[in-house]
Design a protein that fits this description.
Blueprint (H helix, E strand, L loop, with lengths): L2 H10 L7 E3 L6 E3 L5 H19 L5 H14 L11 E5 L6 E4 L3 E5 H6 L3 H16 L2 H14 L4 H4 L4 H6 L3 H5 L4 H17 L6 H20 L6 H5 L6 H9 L12 H8 L12 E3 L2 E4 L4 E4 L5 E4 L4 E4 L5 E8 L6 H9 L8 E6 L2 E12 L2 E13 L2 E10 L4 H12 L2 E2 L2 H6 L4 E6 L6 H5 L8 H8 L13 E6 L1
Parallel strand pairs: 3-5
Antiparallel strand pairs: 1-2, 4-5, 6-7, 7-8, 8-16, 9-10, 10-11, 11-15, 12-13, 13-14, 14-15, 17-18
Length: 482
């Protein structure tokens, strides 16, 4: 099926009437008729509630206002006066940014932590505004409906909810990958807006270089080649640093171009780094949640991931440990809860009564499979409160050595309540700004961080320094402290 021919035909078809129009920002003739501009604001408002529920807004009004002020500086220089732009800082350490139809633009504090100037953050925001002005979501949605439904039935659903149902529309529709052409277009528009707003047009390329460094760092830490989320939803073509630099160079040199590095670093000083304190965080192999008041330690070599509704630790040979909470509305004792509530649809065999740091509990083991492999599934229910159970589910490979199983057991038995002193004294990570003195080096400044052997690598990524760049006396730099 030749999509270009289909869309070209649709543009002159009586089925879609005014489904195609010339975009004022790009000058292209677009097929966007299945998501009219007048519908974008209401769709964006609906999806905005889902985004906030998933990520949460970062609770620092000063920084929220700062992000908004940068966005609003750019808005007057865009081509779509019909859009009321709104800007939000999400409480997520993931390096990501995206936009919803109707002008809802989001950046994470992971983005702010990686950027090194106001102009770089403005470049990210301008890029997302470019997606809005180019109506890439509307274009992608309209093309998707054609693909999903076929042109033969298109006319019947133009004003019907079936089109939305066919695509399972939601926030994912607007945050999944753009095409290479749409990315290039958003880059071009973003740099145009940077220039018009008086920012350094090369800032976007500098931020992309930092993203490349972040990708390399994460691969070093995890042992896997995985790009930042921003590159996952904004596919890297391999030459975007060079192409954005080339585009920036086509604009007249502006000796007064705004970068605002020092002011930017002053604004983000003290901002949370890494996992959100209110959602719990990991230090070493221990997960702490001061707000709820618990902690536990995963075995050495396990990777801990803090999800919205669970903490997941993964280890060798597909071993998985899942921790979460569950309500105990029927006031079951631990053994009755494990069989009568948690596993009521599946008998688990003998259930043993246990005690973990003064809390009643129960445990059972049954045989199961994970991704087709035989596993022993260990269940542990711990009475956190009379109406709440803390739970561990551990998938253990068949034939695992006894020492490995004992490490897993020790991990579950490390689950404990945090004392008031621990709650008050345990600190999550945050950004600090330091000024390099005459004798300072990358090594001396990075040594103040809590990452051990990765101190220097983390410092270089944070400050956009390649492997052969040093620090300059009198220059400000970011470090992570607790």
């Amino acid at each position: 099926m030749d999509m270009k021919k289909i869309l070209s035909a649709l543009c002159v078809s009586v089925l879609v009437l005014s489904g195609c129009s010339t975009n004022p920002a790009t000058g292209r003739n677009q097929f966007t008729g299945l998501l009219p501009a007048e519908s974008e604001a209401s769709i964006g408002a609906t999806e905005h509630q889902k985004i906030v529920a998933e990520y949460g807004l970062y609770q620092d009004q000063r920084l929220q206002n700062y992000v908004t002020s940068i966005g609003q500086r750019i808005v007057p220089f865009t081509e779509r006066g019909d859009v009321e732009y709104k800007f939000f800082l999400l409480d997520s350490d993931t390096v990501n940014a995206f936009a919803l139809p109707g002008g809802f633009v989001y950046v994470t504090r992971g983005i702010l932590g990686l950027a090194n100037s106001e102009a770089e953050l403005a470049g990210v925001i301008a890029h997302e505004i470019g997606h809005v002005t180019a109506r890439h979501s509307a274009e992608r949605y309209s093309r998707g409906v054609v693909t999903a439904l076929g042109t033969s039935v298109l006319g019947a659903v133009l004003d019907n909810a079936s089109a939305a149902k066919a695509l399972n529309t939601g926030a994912d529709l607007y945050t999944r990958s753009y095409s290479r052409g749409q990315e290039s277009e958003a880059d071009t528009l973003g740099i145009r807006y940077l220039s018009r707003a008086g920012y350094d047009t090369f800032a976007m390329a500098r931020f992309m270089q930092s993203m490349q460094l972040e990708s390399q760092y994460q691969s070093q830490v995890s042992g896997k080649q995985a790009p930042p989320a921003f590159l996952s939803t904004h596919p890297d073509t391999g030459d975007r640093v060079a192409s954005t630099s080339q585009i920036a160079g086509t604009y007249p040199a502006n000796p007064n171009a705004v970068d605002n590095r020092d002011e930017y670093l002053r604004m983000i000083r003290g901002m949370a780094f890494g996992e959100s304190a209110k959602e719990g965080f990991t230090q070493g192999q221990t997960f702490f949640h001061p707000a709820i008041g618990f902690k536990f330690t995963a075995p050495r070599g396990f990777n801990i991931e803090n999800k919205t509704d669970a903490v997941i630790a993964t280890g060798p040979n597909n071993t998985v440990m899942i921790f979460d909470f569950d309500s105990n509305k029927q006031a079951f004792d631990p053994q009755s809860y494990l069989q009568g509530a948690w596993m009521k649809q599946e008998p688990v065999g003998p259930i043993d009564q246990i005690s973990i740091n003064g809390m009643r509990g129960a445990t059972a083991l049954y045989n199961g499979t994970v991704q087709g492999r035989p596993m022993g599934i260990r269940l542990i229910a711990i009475e956190w409160q009379p109406n709440v159970y803390a739970r561990f589910q551990i998938a253990i490979p068949a034939g695992a050595p006894e020492s490995f199983i004992e490490d897993l057991r020790a991990s579950t038995y490390s689950f404990a309540r945090m004392s008031e002193s621990e709650k008050n004294n345990i600190k999550s990570e945050r950004l600090e700004i330091v000024t390099a003195a005459g004798g300072d080096s990358v090594a001396s400044l990075s040594a103040r961080q809590p990452f051990g052997q990765l101190n220097e690598a983390r410092f270089r990524v944070l400050n956009g320094l390649s492997g052969n760049q040093g620090v300059q006396a009198g220059q400000k730099y970011k470090i992570v402290v607790r």
